[in-house]
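Below is a concrete protein record.
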Amino acid sequence: MEPAVAISNPNDEVLQTAAQFGIKNIVVYSGPGTPGRNKPRQDFSDYVALRMRIESYGLNLVAIEGGFSPSRKYDDVIFGGPKQDELIEELVAEVRDMGNAGIPIWGYNWMPNSWGRAYPTYIRGGAMATGYDWDWEQDRRPLTFGREMDEDTMWAALEYWIKAVTPVAEEVGIRCGIHPEDPPVPQRAGVPGLFRNFAAFKRLIEVVPSDYNAIEFCQGTFSEMPGEDIYEMIEYFASRNKVLYVHFRNVSGKAPKFNEEFINNGYVDMKRAMRTYRDAGYTGTFIDDHCPIMLDDTTFPGNLGGYRSRLFAQGYIQGLIESVEKELEYGGPVR
């Protein structure tokens, strides 16, 4: 188990800071739906150049995160529209380029409305975090498509997509996984939230039972799922090799109303969570995610959240990993 940093702009400052902080692994926000230089999409050469730039700092590009949803261009993929096959062919070609360029993981989402928060929330010491209230959003947001969308139609389109992309992912060696609905509520602005509970992800991994059909495991969002046990879900999916990498963050509670917290100040016992990954056989990476904005903070270039806050979270993650691994060495909990 190792820490990782997720960035959208792998500039010199970010990469050198990661190297100095002892972080070896980088996740880049990019992928299908992101234009290349003077061309409609990125291709093999773009992904090779990205990987080589990161490797020039002694770092590893362990995943690409993001992609075609919530771009309106790809709505026919998500809802099974008339251009579904044409667009899937385009997306699968880019997945092939990513895999051939040596990108081992692609994490994406099935959220046409993207992720949602309602308002800023002030937490420990006056730091600013994001908050969500489903009732607040429902009162203010119109229907995205002017009507209620059908959940069964979205599932049918999702299964069609998984059956198309997984064989190509297997062929070129890039594992693909879906981020949960964030926030995990039944619908937002008339669009169903497919991946809002434990059962939905159990269904996903059975569409094509392959290590290349997996989960971008946002622990924060899984923790927000009402009626679910976060530790049970970690053990279930990690023990089945379905966790590609982890967004390791903490929250105050569960949907329909919650706010994000400092990594050591939410309701989730983060050391228990880290032990659960370890005991389930997970060996991948953990990224800091949605960190609060601290006093006189600046945003970490290319990232969500504050620079100071992210470094605090990174130190905490590294300390937890070392602690739970040393428990195995010493034969018991390290206090």
